[in-house]
Design brief:
single chain, alpha/beta, Hect, E3 ligase catalytic fold, four-stranded mixed sheet, 7 helices, ubiquitin protein ligase activity, HECT_dom, E3A/B/C-like, Hect_E3_ubiquitin_ligase
Length: about 140
């Protein structure tokens, strides 16, 4: 029985996926040569590929620039008060809304910058907040 179980586990976890994995590895190494990845420890490589998953949201607030707003404007103060009261999952959803990902790139939160801009429309009550994910701009109506 032990031999059967060992052979079955080997088949399921190794043999049955050998060809698809080899194809994946060949394509991956074509675009990302192995010698460049060897300089990373596994934990560092995971951060490079997946980004950071732990955040200090106050650092994010410090890195924001404002366009047509000032840091002490009422809208901005209310925004940050509400933001910091959100549960962690909602903050990550906001990050995904802003940047297209719920993770911070490998270069770290200290270097992640975004802008909060006033869309300057006639009737801001008719607008919803929107974002430019490529430019990391949050358009926040007054």
């Amino acid at each position: 029985r032990k031999e059967f179980v060992d052979l079955y586990v080997n088949y399921v976890l190794n043999e049955s996926i050998r060809k698809p994995f080899e194809d994946f590895m060949q394509g991956f190494l074509r675009g990302c040569p192995a010698r460049k990845w060897k300089m990373f420890l596994p934990v560092e490589l995971q951060i490079v590929l997946q980004g950071h998953t732990k955040f200090d949201w106050h650092v994010l607030e410090k890195n924001v620039t404002y366009s047509q707003y000032k840091k002490l404007d009422r809208t901005i103060r209310i925004f940050w008060t509400v933001f910091h009261k959100l549960p962690e999952e909602k903050k990550k959803k906001f990050l995904a809304f802003l940047s297209g990902s719920d993770r911070i790139p490998g270069y770290g939160l200290e270097n992640f910058k975004f802008c909060i801009a006033d869309p300057q429309k006639e009737n801001p009550d008719e607008l919803y907040p929107s974002a430019s994910t490529c430019s990391h701009i949050l358009f926040l109506p007054r």
